[in-house]
Amino acid sequence: MLVGAPFDGTTSFLPGTRMAPNRIREASVGLETYSPFLDRSLEEIRLADLGDLELPFGNVSEALEMIEAACRSIVDRGTKLILLGGEHLVTLPAVRACHSGYPDLAVVQFDAHADLRADYMGEHDSHATVMRRIGEVVGSDSIFQLGIRSGTREEFAYGRAFSGIFQEDLATGVRKTRELLGERPVYVTVDIDVVDPGFAPGTGTPEPGGCRPQELFQALWALEGLNIVGFDVVEVNPLVDSGVVTSILAAKIVREAAILMGASDEETRATFGGAETFGR
Amino acid sequence: MLVGAPFDGTTSFLPGTRMAPNRIREASVGLETYSPFLDRSLEEIRLADLGDLELPFGNVSEALEMIEAACRSIVDRGTKLILLGGEHLVTLPAVRACHSGYPDLAVVQFDAHADLRADYMGEHDSHATVMRRIGEVVGSDSIFQLGIRSGTREEFAYGRAFSGIFQEDLATGVRKTRELLGERPVYVTVDIDVVDPGFAPGTGTPEPGGCRPQELFQALWALEGLNIVGFDVVEVNPLVDSGVVTSILAAKIVREAAILMGASDEETRATFGGAETFGR
Amino acid sequence: MLVGAPFDGTTSFLPGTRMAPNRIREASVGLETYSPFLDRSLEEIRLADLGDLELPFGNVSEALEMIEAACRSIVDRGTKLILLGGEHLVTLPAVRACHSGYPDLAVVQFDAHADLRADYMGEHDSHATVMRRIGEVVGSDSIFQLGIRSGTREEFAYGRAFSGIFQEDLATGVRKTRELLGERPVYVTVDIDVVDPGFAPGTGTPEPGGCRPQELFQALWALEGLNIVGFDVVEVNPLVDSGVVTSILAAKIVREAAILMGASDEETRATFGGAETFGR
Amino acid sequence: MLVGAPFDGTTSFLPGTRMAPNRIREASVGLETYSPFLDRSLEEIRLADLGDLELPFGNVSEALEMIEAACRSIVDRGTKLILLGGEHLVTLPAVRACHSGYPDLAVVQFDAHADLRADYMGEHDSHATVMRRIGEVVGSDSIFQLGIRSGTREEFAYGRAFSGIFQEDLATGVRKTRELLGERPVYVTVDIDVVDPGFAPGTGTPEPGGCRPQELFQALWALEGLNIVGFDVVEVNPLVDSGVVTSILAAKIVREAAILMGASDEETRATFGGAETFGR
Amino acid sequence: MLVGAPFDGTTSFLPGTRMAPNRIREASVGLETYSPFLDRSLEEIRLADLGDLELPFGNVSEALEMIEAACRSIVDRGTKLILLGGEHLVTLPAVRACHSGYPDLAVVQFDAHADLRADYMGEHDSHATVMRRIGEVVGSDSIFQLGIRSGTREEFAYGRAFSGIFQEDLATGVRKTRELLGERPVYVTVDIDVVDPGFAPGTGTPEPGGCRPQELFQALWALEGLNIVGFDVVEVNPLVDSGVVTSILAAKIVREAAILMGASDEETRATFGGAETFGR
Amino acid sequence: MLVGAPFDGTTSFLPGTRMAPNRIREASVGLETYSPFLDRSLEEIRLADLGDLELPFGNVSEALEMIEAACRSIVDRGTKLILLGGEHLVTLPAVRACHSGYPDLAVVQFDAHADLRADYMGEHDSHATVMRRIGEVVGSDSIFQLGIRSGTREEFAYGRAFSGIFQEDLATGVRKTRELLGERPVYVTVDIDVVDPGFAPGTGTPEPGGCRPQELFQALWALEGLNIVGFDVVEVNPLVDSGVVTSILAAKIVREAAILMGASDEETRATFGGAETFGR
Question: For E50-61, what is each residue's pLDDT tens digit?
Fold first, then answer.
């Protein structure tokens, strides 16, 4: 089940990711429902779109609780969770919800930033600390970070200590990650800024030097067969996008992820990018 | 003294006012320092620019405390305060600071929105409740609201109960306000959305049907002679602006305000829009 | 009942009005549901949003038939019709549908362009001929055109022959129109370019020299008490908008119209701009 | 004859007016060729478009000489000159060219800025000194400045000394100007920033507080019957425009001016906005 | 001979390609006329620019006939055809025109989308069916599709059946294509979306995961020596471009193609990007 | 020491680089101060920011003299120079200043354009002739040009004659350059358009087919250990940027360069991107 979490309350540079869920849905109209690589179509799986949560402005903890409650209700139904951010902090309550249903949960993160600070400008919960917090939920050694190219010296030291794949190229990293994951249930979080700002200008803290979209797709396809129980794409900021370039990239990521996840779970109904809601 | 408060933590629609102080300063380069109407120049007064405060993200109460402390230190020096928002909630700590120095303080608000809600989506402190909170500081009958064209039925009822000038045209409203204010110290807050979005597209909650820039300038000029001890311009959002149109409007408002206020207080040094920092 | 017709197949300058329905809904989040002038709220009426029609690309006649069928089903239920364009040609099938239910139908048009050509570049049905075609449905003397400031010499001659109010200022024109309309059922079409491009830059054929948003609102309010059975706002083009300025203007026009129309018809359910779908 | 001068070499704030001639021509496609107010069409006059001059970058004096030579060749043919800027300094060589053919030439300027500085940042020829230089050509008392709302104290003093109509509203100013001009040949220069930035955001030094487009059109129409031998529209900057709003305003100004001027001179061929080059 | 076909009547997502021919010409000013790789300059060949066709809006079949007639007149002169779209459907009449002159014509397509549907939303002629229609003209086995990464399952099955190079990387595909083409006359169509949206954001249906501009240039250069009789670049949409990035990419593609084609045909006069019309 | 030179007086296509220094500083807030590759932070070196020079408009030679004087004063203090352009011509006075202090100076240029013309449209000093002029200062064989992909035939012949590395890929070129440079003092100039316009759309003459940001960073890192005494990043144009994508790329280039240069010189104070001026 797909749900939007239009939250950007701790964004540190360019706010606006709250506009992402609507624009990603809008952009999905421009895509086909069929994935040539996976040779499967959104129309062949079932994906329900619950719309966006109504979150309060200026109250981080309450917003996180509402997101967790929504995700937990999805997990409790035994269906797959797809979350549209919002900023990266929305991943924390989503992981908490998935972890409650899958205690052995591992987290795979595609990101430019380590997001491993102990705190950020005095704040405990922030898009810059989110992976540290998530490590406190699932265990630091259950986080697999790919594509990281920005952080403090402390974050890099911390990240390297817990993950041998930190900072490797995506193809190598994802191969090693797969081996380490085995049969564990997995939550995958894609911070759109893992891709270079040239391809994804609509994001809150663009970090030059990232991968190409195709490299990210290949990394995602390489996860096929894993038991992915939760997925999100975060940090898409339509306010600073170039047209719909970043939104449509996110929409395609969601399409591929939904098909990947749906490949092992057929219980949902297709509405995202599907013929019944979109123009194609 | 001028200071920037790049805070947009409770914005409900389009975030980004945190970018305003830098862009307003940048836009000020395109203006003359001389005001033909007031027949006085920024170069003839002294206006120090303290730069921007460094505020935490995701912690509303701490950000407000930091703004209040900064404003209080300016008020305590006995100098005039000019604040660049940020969203409208920054006016609350600024008024608190001025009120501590001027217990008889009145507040004149130019705005499209009443901002008089008791709370907003469960939150006590918000850009939609800020004038209600300010009323709790200076007394509801010490607030003079001009240009209001949006709110809930409750806000309109509340506003009309306390202010006979509510919703009148700016020229009439400002004339009556002046009479009521007498010699009281005054804080003036300009929410840029009092102007029609056609002239000020760069704002967080644009409300069609507002005044022209010239009407606002005339209203400001009509305040000449009042003891204006604090002033702000808020809700400028460069992320959704058309070029620098809204930023330059805000810069001109600040120029006129600084000259108006400086006319009775010569203690500051000119740096905003002045020859020493800008290109003209 | 509200329905979107994302059609821009005969646009002659800047295409993109097909994106309007989604962006107008998105922008409605930034508005209150309460109209201070009408002293009534969207939450107090019932307005159902049927979403957007799925129209074919490159086949004008089929698209028009689909729009007419959708509008006719609404009219046949006896409920009020609110249509979100799309370009101005969508008004033709909507008027046809209303005319089938209300044979005495009159049409009030707010527009910069006369749209009265007999044909346009060889085409019979076009956004430049739409009012001529509508005149063939309801009778040329049942069209009341307000705000017209652009057309060919022939269109101006034609328009003046049939309408004494053509080209007058909105306030005068709407007053005379009301007198002439009496108790007749009315379809109101608002081409957003009646407003000056400064306030509504997001439109397909911007025509400098138009009215202010407030003048348009006053003209709409002056229609209170009429039996408005159909309403549309057309020619909003988000692809060339300045942020959401034009979309939010259209959303406010729809809000005022829905409340105006709903004032005499309470059968619908509020979802546009209402608390259940939008953030405020 | 229409010619473009894509020069912005002395622009002090936002450069880019060199892109204006092409974008004004492009925008003219969105307009009708018929002027309802003047009841005459571009198709009924003859207006040749010579295209754009190829000017060197970084050499002000040579660029000015090339513009003057081009304008002089047009004046020498006895035809009317219409110049598309570029920045305001292009008016200087155009006036020189017209003055050589019409020694009794007067200049009518619509502008936000006085442009009367003796020099600007050490430079003699600049868009901020252009009217001072023009005064040295035609005599300071042959300049009629309308709409001025920005300048230094010295410029305002200088302007008031020579022109009683300085700073009056456009309607009054243009009426007085007409009386003073009598039968003299006239050069009219329109700096697009005379209009408020809300309507003309695409300009190099936007100055809030200007007139509406309709006020400018009325002022231009009030010049009917004068012997206008040269005309320009300058300071349109497409790089910072909102879509094509400012370009289309300039195109409409050119259309009205061409019809106004052509009304007394029928020797040219219509290509600007005319059916043979544009889509309508 | 170069001609523009500003047609976007069947565009399914973001319309606006009609603006492309003018903006591509404008952008060509920013390029050199000399191609370092081909070691030849536009100034050394002769390329006439016929300007843009005036096409009706809302009548697909008539627009296609006009484009075909224009292309046929160029082919009939025995000169090379370069077409600036517009959307991809403009390739159909251009291929028809070339096929009438060269019955053995083969078509090489660079594209993200297969465009092989039998029909699209009920329409026979559409930018989504154009290659299927072209296959009906030249034979399905005379189409060589490169870079395809989007389509329906049916399109992929159809494409693979007729073309072994379908979906291979550009370098491999173009090498095999060359071998298969031999001495046949060739029409080359470049849908700009073959390049990743990061490099070409200005397009109607951006498809993430495409090639880099340099890969496309290398593929084009690898066609040197072929008898290219027609060429187009389509689907450039300036309304959603980031500045002029996509337009300038298209202009460079046209420059390289013109030099490639001109290498075997010297009958035309250089005006596109050449010294006589552009600033450099 | 860092200083801004907001000069764009000879720009030939899209002007606006004068806005770059402020926007690059603004964008630096979005970056960390720590470089993972260099394993060193801006906070560990000392980098003073002198702000922007105030340069005259329309007087190229005077602007160049002012830039040279400012750079010379920095060189004379024995500190490293980092210059923020502005257009590429600002490199000429900077190199002159460095050459006066380091007579054995070599220049390494990353650029899409050779900039080797003898003159450009009659002008001796221009952004298109700047490297030819610099060759006259340091000797043509002391210039090392990398990434060049645009120029006239004459420029390519000239460039190849003096530099064997001309036109090679960055990795190879920078390796050979290092060997040739030995212990010589080096000035490095980065024209942002060496990167493909997809990653750096905000530039004056975008040239499709460039490198990725990561390739440029690798080339810069490969310069570690050289005695870099001067550095600039030029041709960033915020007026045509996609959000802040190009500004943030430039900011990261400056960060890496400052750390590289500071690695051998610790005399400066950190303010660019450092904690004391920016939000992080």
Answer: 999 999 988 999
Q: Are F70 and F95 within 8 A, CB to CB? A: no
Contact between C2 and C28 (Cβ < 8 Å)? no
Residues C51-82: tens digit of each pLDDT: 999 999 889 999 999 999 999 999 999 999 99
Chain F hits for D58, Cβ within 8 Å: 9-10, 60, 123, 125-126
Predicted TM-score (pTM) above 0.80: yes
Give C1→chain D minimum CA distance, Å: 33
Tokens 């990167």 belong to F195
Q: Which residue of F has its CA nearest to B278?
A: F54
* Minimal C-alpha gap between A8 and chain B (Å): 9
Q: Dihedral (C-alpha) C200, C202, C208, C212: value to the nearest 10 degrees?
A: -10
8 Å CB contact of F39 and A198: no
Q: Which two tokens stand for residue A209?
A: 């030097």
Contacts of D9 in chain E (CB under 8 A): none
Query: Helices (DSSP H) in chain C: which residue ranges?
Result: 20-28, 60-76, 91-101, 130-138, 153-162, 170-181, 213-221, 245-262
B14 CB neighbours in chain A (<8 A) are 16, 19, 239
Average pLDDT over residues B13-30: 96
Q: Are B255 and B33 in contact (CB under 8 A)?
A: yes
Q: Tell me which residue in C34, C41, C242 faces B242 most closely, judged by beta carbons.
A: C242
Please report, for residues A113, A240, C35, the alpha-carbon distance to residue A159 in angstroms, rounded to integers and kept in the order given: 11, 30, 54
* F274 confidence band (pLDDT: 50, 70, 90): very low
Q: What is the mean pLDDT of chain C?
A: 91
Cβ contact B198–C213 (<8 Å): yes
Residues of chain F found within 8 Å of residue E41, distances taken between Cβ atoms = 153
Give the pairing type, strands A106-110 and A81-85.
Answer: unpaired
Length of chain D equals: 280
Closest residue, chain D, to C246 (C-alpha): D242
Nearest to B145 by CA among B172, B175, B166: B166
Q: For an interface test with C, which of E59, E90, E124 has the most C Cβ atoms less than 10 Å from its Cβ? A: E59
Query: Left (φ > 0), alpha (ψ -120 to 50) or beta: where does A188 sit?
Result: beta
Cα B267 to chain centroid, rounded: 21
Which of F6, F22, F279 lies nearest to residue B54, judging by beta carbons? F279
Alpha helices in D182-279 (DSSP H): 213-221, 245-262
Closest-CA distance, A194 to chain B, in angstroms, reads: 22
Chain A residue numbers with beta carbons less than 8 Å from the beta carbon of B56 are: 121-123
Q: pLDDT for D243-263, tens place per residue?
A: 999 999 999 999 999 999 984
Which of B228-237, B262-271, C33-42, D103-112 shows the lowest per-residue confidence on average (mean pLDDT)? B262-271
pLDDT band (50, 70, 90) for residue F121: confident
Distance, C-alpha B201 to centroid of its chain: 17
Place of tokens 């449905």: C137
Query: B2-261 in CATH: which number?
Result: 3.40.800.10
Overall average pLDDT of the E239-249 stretch: 96
Per residue in B186-205, pLDDT (tens digit) is: 999 999 999 999 999 999 99
Spatial contact of B197 and B13, defined as CB atoms under 8 Å apart: no
Length, in residues, of chain F = 280
Q: Which structure tokens are listed for B63? A: 């950000």
Nearest C-alpha neighbor of C159 from the set C111, C195, C89: C111
Partners of residue C168 in chain D, C-beta under 8 Å: none
Average pLDDT over residues E220-227: 95
For residue F139, the distance in angstroms to the closest alpha carbon of chain A comes to 34
Contact, F19 vs F204, CB < 8 A? Answer: no
pLDDT in tens, E172-186: 999 999 999 999 999
Hey, what are C231's tokens? 């309403």
